[in-house]
Amino acid sequence: MTVNTKQDRDFIKTADEAVDMYHAKKEELIPILMKVNQDLGYIPKPVMEHISSRLQVPQSHLYSVATFYHMFFTEQTGRHVIKFCESAPCHVAGGREVFDALQEDLGISPGGTSDDGKWTLMTTSCLGVCAVGPVMMVDDDIYGNLTPDQIPDILAKYE
Amino acid sequence: MAKITIDGKTIEVENGTTVLNAARQLEVDIPTLCDHPELTPYGGCRLCLVEVEGARTLQPSCTLPVSDGMVVKTETEKIREARKFVLSMIFSERNHFCPYCQVSGGDCELQNSAYAEGMTHWPIQPNWHPYSVDASHPFIILDHNRCILCRRCVRACGELVGNFTLGFEERGADSTLVADLGLPLGESSCIGCGTCVQVCPTGTLIDRWSAYQGKETDVETTKTICLGCSVGCGIDVLTRDNRLVRIEGDWTATINHGLLCDVGRFLPMVEERERILTPMVKTDGKLKAATWDDALKVAAEMISKHKGNLDGVTSTRVSVEAMAQLRNLCEAFDAKSLLTTEDCQAVSAIYHQASSDQSALEGKVEDLLDADCYLTFGEDITKDHQVLSFFAKRRIPEGAQVIQITDKVSGFDNFATITLKVKEKSLADFLIDLKDLISGKSGDMALIAEKYSLDKDELQSTLDALQSSEKSVILFGSRFDFSNSDAVVSATRSLSQAANAKLITTKGNINSVGAAALGYEGAGKVQADLLLMVLADEDLTQCIEQKFEKAPKRVVFSSYVSPLTAGADVVFPVENWLEQDGHIINFDGHILEQHAALESAPEVYSNSNAIEKLASILNVKNNTDWKKELDKFTSPVKIA
Amino acid sequence: MKTKRSMVLVSNDPASQKKGASEVYNQFSKELAAFNLSDEISLTMVSDIHRDDIAPFVIVYPEAVIYGPVKPEDVHHLVEEHLYKGRIAVDLKAPTKQLTGPISWIADRKGTLPAEQRIVLERAGVIDPDSIEEYVIHDGYTALGKALTEMTPQQVINEIKESNLRGRGGAGFPTGSKWGFVASAQGDQKYVICNADESEPGTFKDRLILEGDPHSIIESMTIAAYAVDASEGYIYIRGEYSLAQTRLVNAIQQAKELGFLGENIFGTDFSFDIQIHAGAGAYICGEETALIESIEGKRGEPRPRPPYPTTNGLWNKPTLVNNVETLANIAPIIRNGAAWFNAYGNPSSAGTKVYTILGDVNVTGLIEVPMGITLREVISIYAKGMKNGAKLKLAQTGGSSGSIIPADLQDVPMDYDSFAKAGVTMGSGALLICSDKTCVVDLAKVLINFFRFESCGKCNPCRIGNQRAYQILTKISEGLGTEKDLADLGDISKWLYEMSNCGLGQTAGAPLKDVMSHFVNEVEAHINQKECPAGVCKMSGTMPAQK
Fold first, then answer.
1. CA B631, CA B637: separation in Å to the nearest integer?
2. Domain residue limits, chain A
3. CB pairs under 8 A between A and C
4. Which of A158, B60, B175, B480 has its CA 20 to 30 Å from the CA of residue B450?
């Protein structure tokens, strides 16, 4: 990739770190992408280009893997990502009311990012903490036993 | 071996054969959509499901290996219902508006499958979500509304061509065909070979020219040879009402196995030159239409006057028959030289070396199919003689190494495991040094690396790759303007022997080998005042045109108007490549047959016939049997 | 005054005396002295508690465990296990009998009342998962030692076969047979993979095992590797389980340091190494072949089968893939023997099963009980009844693709065979218990949405079928449903089963099918009367905007 800006250089550095961590092995593509996703919050296209070239893996393959797995983001997200569980156990525990409250409070629909760039709201599949449903994750924090009136306080914790 | 019974018929097949292939051997027809005989089975469309005794659910015949004693049924009530169901699902997924589609009415495998099941309408309504149309590519249009997500194109782009431009983004119902990192096709790494278009079962991937020109049921198909380069790919030419509709790769051709590049598939669709339909004679400084008889008389007179002072020039798009006839005629009039319209010396150099070594040591195209190490230099084979590069690129996922020696940007840059940036003028020396390293004559890796400003480890890796490979191939792109062709050619031959690698040189144009085998000098100097030129339908570069324009007098056989015809004294109209038969000898010595797919206009004859007419009027008998001529020279590659 | 920490009561009623209660009492005296516990534990007698069937019996407090019948030769084991090591001696426990109140119906139940028996969750929550020492104290790595030094690989496989252990990931395939296939497969390299991609909604048992007792998986995988002759192993763990990943990495490091993993384990010729490979958010990667594709760095699209991973798995080599819970049973079985395992459950379904209890009940959570418990027992005993006295309407067993069982099947024992006879799947053991507050259309919609979202997209029936079913159910829930929609849903669920490439698609239509066979009236109410009896569906008359 053409390296023009500091951001480009940072991207290459992050990509190289991830690739080197896994000894540039092609089959470690998913852990490599995960590392980049964790470091940058998403996987920018210039990073994908660089990884493709270092691993000698076609860009189309890299892209098809990066977009298949839903923990990866290929576009920049809001500062905070909310993942709300929409699977059956959380739903039966009263998830819909909580989700309606959440949408109303944020003013965004699922998949969207708020205009001020603070929040991205997504629905997600079962997170494996079903006994305390309804459940949502904000970044790496998990919140369980949710009720609609808890939402404003939880959201207020994040800048 | 395993025995299988399908619909009551039993057959014994090799272990590992799929039920679908066993059925094909029994001539039992199982419908498929995602399957294609040239691609690895995918098992996604589920149209090929069959009932297997003892199995819990229906089984996909395209991926299921035969087990001994298997009993299969392919036409039960359940299966027919299942097929209808999956077809109704497919129709409901995207927007299949058959009345407006270019492939509707016979060429669409989806539509044909539905009709075969007696379906006439969509049982389930789609959700009417509009999908995009990508028309960014100069040759190919991609309409996502028609895509059935069979992945044939993705597999073809990867397994057959080795380019891996196409992939799939997202998953589930959001899955979409995509190029590279999500680029429009026209901005992606797509090389425009069109293999995806050829395998696409619906109207998703179509080319810009053949739309509405004719369907499989309307067209005539002629098997012939592409004249785009010396590879000589077998092609199917589709014509209708004496017009070219489409060119496809011939899956049964032994050279290319159905592969084709944009030069062969798409470039010939665009012909903008003016066609010459009648003989012309220069009268009062201007070319005027004339009859064949009159034109032949004028030409014959000129040739007789210039005995001993004429050069014969042939295009390399001309058949060996015509080339032999031309040579015969020229020799009868003591021609000074026999030239071709080629623009580089390498082909002759290769031929001369072969004669002096007395060895036909080059490999054949089959050697490219299963090598595990490819060393390439000279021309960029991904741009010229492209199909050969497909064979190398597609072996890369299997672990094959591609090593290129070049100091320029090349199409192999994203694929090569090692790139050695050796300057073109040092190539011959480098090849010799490499040969010495391999054969053990010289051991100083570091010194040699420094001499050519290379990374020592990369040089070592190159050596390791060549020495440890089970089968290596040197792909020498010889259509290249070397300053020292002889030296490079010689070095290449030595290197291939030292490395025990098969040598494949691309030579040049489609019948460069034929011309060299018949004694043509190739790209030599114009010496005489009269040129007897068989230009055929070649589209010459300005450079070459200027070279030949220097001769004061010209008798030209040509299909199209060009500066060389404009300034000629006599012009004879000849058939273009689609209109004539003939033989050509490709880069690896195969004698290939051209077959005419179109009929030419009344006064237009084949190159062969036209030369014969001229020879006849000059009382020159054609006593050159081109087949016998081939034995006279030692060819670099065995001609068969 | 010195306080005693434990009290042992030996029965002395006539029936017990006849069966040797005095000898039992004397033996206790001797054993307590031998273990130096006489000062801490008080020994006394208890008279009749109307339990002739278990005479002589012993009650131990504070746990209030009743043991019986107890023979003099059992006393040593009881003292060592319960009073010395602090673990209930399960093999000597007496069947309990409680006949009062809401569970008096249990009197009809022949055989034992299922009490929790923790095998796979034995240590989870009891030991410090970051301490290998605590694992070892709790019999950790003894099974591995026994296997490597006293058993041949074939003997290990036989033990697992005899135990009748079946895969706990959902498919229920006999584990011993699977091990046998891999062991006999030809290959210069074999792999053992632990499937820790637990993503089935309602299931988090594997997470608790991995977070609470990571070494149990390492030990069991190593035993498996020894049995099938594999030298490399992978734990494929879902990306969202970051705590479990950290604990496993730690545990592997510790195991290597002490020679329980790596080169020459226990000083034998056998070497085995384990790598952790995290997923990245795809339920389909819980399917064996999709999991393997993911480890190979590709999209998780299931491969055509046959060939099976047992012969052509990771990198096309013979590969054993087992679920976390399945593996967690291995070390206990090797340690205690197949017969011990068979004593739990019943012949078709040996051992215990972990069930997650979720939904409209008072107590949600996780239990491990012998196979054969019924839904009614789960609700009344463990979940402490439906919330706010609501009426049980249905329960979905086995995750989102599991069967939906109506209330009238709540007395069917939950084991593989009984369930199969009743046409219900066992699945992963998740129990989603729903009351009248749940609308079946709404529930079906949520379930299908999961499969629509998680479908890999390779095969048409699943990719498109789930999409169409979701749209139809949305239509019905908005009051726009038609009779044709019912027919279409029926077709979709039928063909999903017959035609899909893998288990996801094959079972995605199961809940739909069950809803339409058990609750068709409720669905028809939505269509014909434009009513949602449960009052859940919007019935707005318009379709929501689509992506």
1. 12
2. 6-68, 80-156
3. 121
4. B480
